[in-house]
Structure formats: structure tokens, C-alpha cells
Write a structure and sequence with these properties.
Helix content is 44%, strand content 14%. By secondary structure, the chain is of the alpha/beta class. The protein has five domains: 186 residues, Rossmann fold; 68 residues, Arc Repressor Mutant, subunit A (Orthogonal Bundle), CATH 1.10.10; 163 residues, P-loop containing nucleotide triphosphate hydrolases (Rossmann fold, 3-Layer(aba) Sandwich), CATH 3.40.50.300; 142 residues, Orthogonal Bundle (PCRA, domain 4); 70 residues, Beta Barrel (Thrombin, subunit H). The strands form five sheets. A seven-stranded parallel β-sheet has the order 11-12-10-13-14-9-17. Helix 11 links the parallel strand 6 and strand 7. Helix 7 runs parallel beside helix 9, helix 16 packs antiparallel against helix 24 and helix 21 runs antiparallel to helix 23. The longest helix has 21 residues.
Length: 723
């Protein structure tokens, strides 16, 4: 038997973990330390050396991608079909178990699994059946509550009634939801885990069968397990020392969705004879990046402790850029990316990481302006997000009542009691009379054929649009956008979503207001359109199919949470400011602050060769102008690892130039403005020049106006006067 293929590629710590005698084992695997390799080679060792049958091994991970990778590596290593192994996600393996024992699990043989969208639609129908107002009982909030209860192993029947009317109603909805699912043979994702746990718990013979079958159980990303997942693992292994878990307490960043970092500590307590092995040699990042990450994360209390190191050398220092504002930050990042590509770098090796999805807009704008392909990883571009499209639909109806697509989108968003039957009637009238849906809605109301409830609901929507249009008259563009966002009910709708990114949607709507505030209608208005029409055109052009194709060489944009498990040669970690990162909600909560620090640690350790950190001295985000302090995380990185970036003339702070003679053509001259210079605009008033970019007719200047805020203006048309 040739075992060199299994152990030769391993370092000493990895080899120790792979070849150790079978016992309960915790492998504390640092970022980039080869944890997947250890898992795969441990399984291969147990099969090839210890003589364990593939039939006796269970391996659990969190993503289908990780499961496929493990299966593929094992097939290459052992030359056996991976189908003989139970390797999969928690949900996938639970589903496999329930399919095999559907009747015992009290499920029909042909039970159907609902994804998140299917589950939400079912909840909406249920709320309608129960005559519950969706504004008071938002479906996504109900969905979050039900799933959170299941993740904790709690059935509706286990919950005692309290004097709290909200909890009492939620309990009633949960009970009705369970009955509906059972009657319909439907199973949601959270139910897969809970039902599989109950199946084993309530059937001792079956439990004993699987305990004897799965002699070795392996778990990846153990720090991300929730209550019911860990309970399921405990059932399968009981007090046997046959649980091999790989995790990293420093990368536990999903507490907000139920992950329990405490499971790492429970494991050690429940397996007092466990073997603890630390994987600290990093194969991803430079020494400087790792030392910065180590020093940062050392500020967290209660760590299990490890120190990442590499033998690949120190590499470049970490670059820190102080931006004037969020636009300057985005301009700097994009210019650095363009320089990287010009020097032979590949775009797909570059990532821009941010704490909040709302931050993506500025970078998307600058990337598009320079024709740099990009992709928002694991999410939608700013103007493609549903909450933004909803707000824009209201604005489009305010500008044009005959916009049928916008009418369809928001006539019942937020829900206001306009049902499918009413909408069908509106569509029929519009089709028969060849008129817009708006005109058809008015005609339907005037016919008097609707029920009182349906008629009042439709009248309410028509009146709302009239009020929005009337109140918007004479307002600045950003005030019109804010009015639409607030008075339409969208802001309240998302504020009431206690989970499922409700807070993020609110931030995105506030960023839309900010986009309107910064929008320069004078830059390109050859048709003399109104500001709102121009802004809506701009939004339409910014959305759609301009995002790079999946396999195109493009820059990656993503939140820090989405970046876990990935690596890039060049990383920009942006928005390093108090209140943004760490988030404002975490600064007064020690536990949440430590999770934010772990998130920063994850972000830093995504970088392989070069890392840029940046923050802005002023930032307009979520509709507010702020002057934030640099993030405490910057102060926690030793100065010896950081090199401050000084702006170069061709990036954002041009050196003063001699004033040229007046030119007859604006495209031919060099303009005389400099950073810090006071200027006056006939519409926006007095302001200060912050930065310039472009050449000739394309040269534009960013000015901070006292009254109008930040504006980008094309110098060829701005008609600025020097103060």
C-alpha cells in the first residue's frame, strides 16, 4: 500500500492531524492553512491505512461547492467513486435521510422541498387566509421568526403563550404554518434539519443503526454550526470519540444568522480527551499581511489562540489611503486597479471588499466610467436591487402615469389590499380600450363594479401617487426621491423587516437619496430634460446587462461576509471608519464588536500579495453627511506594517499649473483650477474644489458647495467663477 501520496504533500501539523489515532479531534485551522486538504487526506488515511470502509464515513460541510471539491479530491486521491461516501451539506444529508425514511418521519414519500422564495410565497398566502395585514405582519419577518425557532429546535407546540400580543400572534401563525406544510407535504430548509434530528431522536433503533454505520464523522467550518446542527451531530456520535471537526474561532462571522461559536467550546467540554491540533502555516498571504492580521485579532478576548506564519517572505507593506470622501476613495481604488492591469495584472485577481452593500454604488459608477468589467459577487448591482427598483418605479409613475411596468411593480407594494382579481380587471380594460394601466385603474374605479374594500384600496393608490406628485413640485431632486421612498411606505416596509436584510434594504434606499443628491443634471443635458427624468434615465443606463459575464475577466465586488473562503492577489478593504466598520450597531456591544473584528480579520486574510486599506474623511452614506473617525481596527494594526499612500497628481490632487491664455474651444485648454480653490457656480453658489480628473472636453471637477453639497461638474459647461 503506497501511503506517500497521502502524507507527502503535508506539513508537520497537517500530517499530525491526518495520521493521529482515531479520537475526538479539533483542528484549529487558520485562514489559508489547508483545512480542506487535511479533511480529505484524513478520510483517505482512514480508508487506506486504518482499513475503514467508505461506507462508514460521514463528512459534512456548509456549501455544495465545498462538498463537490471534497468528493473530487477524494476520487483523485483514492481512485474510488465518491458516491460510496456520504459527503454533503447539512441540508443535503438531512434530505437524503428523510427520503430514505419518509414514512417514519411522518412525511409523504413524494414530499417537496421549498426554497426560501417558495416558503415566502406560502407564508403570504397563509397570512391572507388568516386575514392578517402584511404591513403589520411582514411575511419576511414571519419567515425569519419561524426559521429561527426551528434552528433552535423549537416547535410551535413547545412554545408557551405569554402575555405579549406579538408573541401570541406569531405562535398562532407558526402553528397554522406547520399544519399547512404537513397537509401539503411541504418541507422548508430549516425543517429538513429539525425533522432529521427528530427522526433519529425519536427512533432508537434507527439511531443505533446510523451510529454503527458512521464510525467516523468529519465536519468542516465547525464554528458556523447552529444549535440544531450541533444537536444532530451529537445524536450521531453520542459520547463516542469519533468526531473530527475543523474550525476557526477567529473566522466565526455568522452569529447574526444563528451560528454558535460556543459549539467549539462545547465540543471540548463534551470530549475531555479530545486532541487539539493547530494549523498555523499559511500558504496564501505574505508575512506582513499575516502579522497585521495576527495583531488585530489578538484584541479579541477568549480566543483559543494561534499565530499564522508563512515562509514565503514579508512582501509589500499594507497601503493605507485617506480619501477626501467616498467618491475620491472609489476613484483612487479604480485608478489603482487600472494601473494593476496596465502592468500585466488580471482583473479577476482583484477584489473590492466592503461592510455594507450600499457602498458598492460609488465603485460601480467609477468602474463603468472607465469601461472596467466587474461583477458583484453573491449579489445584485445597486440599481438592480429590488428595493431600488421599487423606489424608482414610484418615481417613474410620478414622472409618467402611463408607465405600465412601474404600475405593475408597485400597485401593491407595499401590500395595500389590491388583489389579483382587481389587477386582472385593470389589465382587461387596458387591453380592450388600448389605454394605460393607470387610465384603466381610474376607469375601473369609476365603473363602481369593485367591492368596497377593493375600490378603497385602488383609490388609495391613485390618491397616493397624486399626493406624491403634488408634494414633489418645487423640491430638489434628492428631496423628491426621499419623499417617494418615505411616503410610498417602502422605507417603513423594510424597517419592519427584522431580518432577511431589512436593515440593508433601508441603507440602500437611503443611498439612493444620496445618489440623487450627488447627481449632476447639468453634466449632460442636451435635451433640456427635467432633473427627475435625467436621473431616471441615468438609473436605467446604470442597471441591466452591463455587469460582466460569469467567466469574463473582471473585478470582483463583494461584502466581507461574501468573501469568506475566497482569495485574491490584490484586495481593497474600503470604508474603514467608525460607525461603518465596525458598524454602528456593534460599537456598544462587546460580543458584536468582536465579531466585527473577526470580520476584519477575514477581510485582511483574503489578500495574497497586496492589501490596500482606505477610509474617507467625509462620507455621505444612507443620506447623511458624516465626518467619521478612522476605524479602531486601523489603530490595532502596528504602524510598522502600514505605508500611507500619498496622492499623485494624475490620481486625485493635481499639482498647480500655470494659468493658460483663454482658449476659444473648451476642449483645447488646460484649466486653471486647483484643489482647495474657492469657486462660485451660478446655480449651486459658493464651493471649494476637491479634485479633478479627465482631460480636454472630458475634464471634470468635484466641488463641495456650501448649500448643495458635493457635485461633479464638466468644466466645459460649468461656467465657474473664481472667488
Amino acid at each position: 500500500m503506497d501511503i506517500t501520496k497521502i502524507i507527502d504533500p503535508l506539513n508537520d501539523a497537517q500530517r499530525h492531524a491526518v495520521t493521529a489515532p482515531s479520537t475526538a479531534m479539533l483542528v484549529l485551522a487558520g485562514a489559508g492553512s489547508g483545512k480542506t486538504r487535511v479533511l480529505v487526506h484524513r478520510i483517505a488515511w482512514q480508508i487506506q491505512v486504518e482499513g475503514l470502509s467508505p461506507h462508514n464515513i460521514l463528512a459534512v460541510t456548509f456549501t455544495n461547492k465545498a462538498a463537490r471539491e471534497m468528493r473530487g479530491r477524494l476520487e483523485d486521491l483514492l481512485a474510488i467513486p465518491a458516491q460510496t461516501l456520504w459527503i454533503g451539506t447539512f441540508h443535503g444529508l438531512a434530505h437524503r435521510l428523510l427520503r430514505r425514511h419518509a414514512q417514519t418521519a411522518k412525511l409523504p414519500d413524494a414530499f417537496q422541498v421549498m426554497d426560501s422564495a417558495d416558503q415566502l410565497r406560502l407564508i403570504k398566502r397563509l397570512l391572507n387566509t388568516l386575514n392578517l395585514d402584511e404591513e403589520k405582519w411582514p411575511p419576511k419577518q414571519v419567515q425569519w421568526h419561524i426559521n429561527a425557532q426551528k434552528d433552535e429546535g423549537i416547535r410551535a407546540r413547545h412554545t408557551s403563550e405569554t402575555g405579549d400580543p406579538y408573541q401570541r400572534q406569531m405562535l398562532m401563525i407558526y402553528l397554522a404554518y406547520e399544519k399547512l406544510c404537513d397537509r401539503s407535504g411541504l418541507v422548508d430548509f430549516a425543517e429538513l434539519l429539525l425533522r432529521a434530528h427528530e427522526l433519529l431522536r425519536d427512533n432508537p433503533d434507527m439511531l443505533e443503526f446510523y451510529q454503527q454505520r458512521f464510525l467516523q464523522v468529519h465536519v468542516d467550518e465547525f464554528q458556523d454550526t447552529n444549535t440544531i446542527q450541533y444537536a444532530w451531530l451529537r445524536l450521531l456520535t453520542q459520547d463516542k470519540d469519533n468526531l473530527f471537526v475543523v474550525g476557526d474561532d477567529d473566522q466565526s462571522i455568522y452569529g447574526w444568522r444563528g451560528a454558535k461559536i460556543e459549539n467549539l467550546y462545547k465540543f471540548q467540554k463534551q470530549h475531555p480527551n479530545h486532541l487539539l491540533i493547530r494549523l498555523e502555516q499559511n500558504y496564501r498571504s505574505t508575512g506582513t499581511i499575516l502579522k497585521a492580521a495576527n495583531t488585530l485579532i489578538a484584541n479579541n478576548d477568549g480566543r483559543m489562540g494561534k499565530e499564522l506564519w508563512t515562509d514565503s517572505g514579508a512582501g509589500e507593506p499594507i497601503s493605507l489611503y485617506t480619501a477626501f470622501n467616498e467618491q475620491d476613495e472609489a476613484y483612487f481604488v479604480v485608478e489603482r486597479i487600472r494601473a494593476w492591469v496596465k502592468e500585466g495584472g488580471v482583473r479577476s485577481d482583484v477584489a473590492i471588499l466592503y461592510r455594507s452593500n450600499a457602498q458598492s454604488r460609488q465603485f460601480e459608477e467609477k468602474l463603468m466610467a472607465t469601461n472596467t468589467p466587474y461583477r458583484v459577487y453573491g449579489g445584485l448591482r445597486f440599481f438592480d436591487r429590488a428595493e431600488i427598483k421599487n423606489a424608482l418605479a414610484y418615481l417613474r409613475l410620478m414622472a409618467n402615469r402611463n408607465d405600465d411596468a412601474s404600475f405593475e411593480r408597485v400597485v401593491n407594494t407595499p401590500t395595500r389590499g389590491i388583489g389579483a382579481k382587481t389587477l386582472d380587471d385593470i389589465r382587461m380594460i387596458a387591453r380592450n380600450q388600448d389605454i394605460s394601466l393607470w387610465a384603466a385603474a381610474i376607469a375601473l374605479v369609476n365603473q363602481g363594479s369593485l367591492s368596497a374594500r377593493a375600490s378603497n384600496a385602488l383609490k388609495g393608490f391613485l390618491l397616493l401617487l397624486k399626493q406624491l406628485t403634488d408634494e414633489a413640485d418645487g423640491l430638489e431632486l434628492y428631496e423628491k426621491v426621499r419623499l417617494a421612498v418615505e411616503k410610498s411606505g417602502l422605507l417603513g416596509l423594510y424597517k419592519n423587516e427584522k431580518a432577511d436584510k431589512g436593515e440593508e434594504k433601508v441603507e440602500n434606499l437611503e443611498e439612493l437619496v444620496n445618489a440623487a443628491r450627488l447627481f449632476d443634471a447639468d453634466a449632460d443635458n442636451g435635451d433640456n430634460l427635467g432633473e427627475l427624468d435625467l436621473f431616471l434615465t441615468y438609473a436605467a443606463l446604470e442597471s441591466g446587462d452591463m455587469q460582466a459575464d460569469e467567466f469574463e475577466d473582471c473585478v470582483q465586488l463583494m461584502t466581507l461576509h461574501s468573501a469568506k473562503g475566497l482569495e485574491f492577489k490584490l484586495v481593497f478593504l474600503v470604508g474603514m471608519e467608525e460607525g461603518l466598520f465596525p458598524s454602528q450597531q456593534s460599537v456598544d456591544d462587546a460580543g458584536r464588536l468582536e465579531e466585527e473584528r473577526r470580520l476584519c480579520y477575514v477581510g485582511i486574510t483574503r489578500a495574497m500579495r497586496k492589501l490596500y486599506l482606505s477610509y474617507a474623511e467625509s462620507r455621505r452614506l444612507y443620506g447623511r453627511e458624516t465626518y467619521p473617525r478612522p476605524s479602531r481596527f486601523l489603530r490595532e494594526i502596528p504602524a510598522e506594517f502600514i505605508q500611507e499612500v500619498r496622492m499623485r497628481a494624475n490620481i486625485s490632487r493635481p499639482a498647480p499649473v500655470a494659468q493658460p491664455k483663454p482658449q476659444t474651444s473648451p476642449s483645447a485648454g488646460i484649466y486653471k483650477y486647483r484643489v482647495g480653490q474657492k469657486v462660485r457656480h451660478e446655480k449651486f453658489g459658493e464651493g471649494v474644489v476637491l479634485q479633478m480628473e479627465g482631460q480636454g472636453a472630458q475634464e471634470r471637477v468635484q466641488i463641495n458647495f456650501k448649500q448643495a453639497g458635493m457635485k461633479w461638474l464638466m468644466l466645459a459647461y460649468a461656467k465657474l467663477a473664481v472667488e
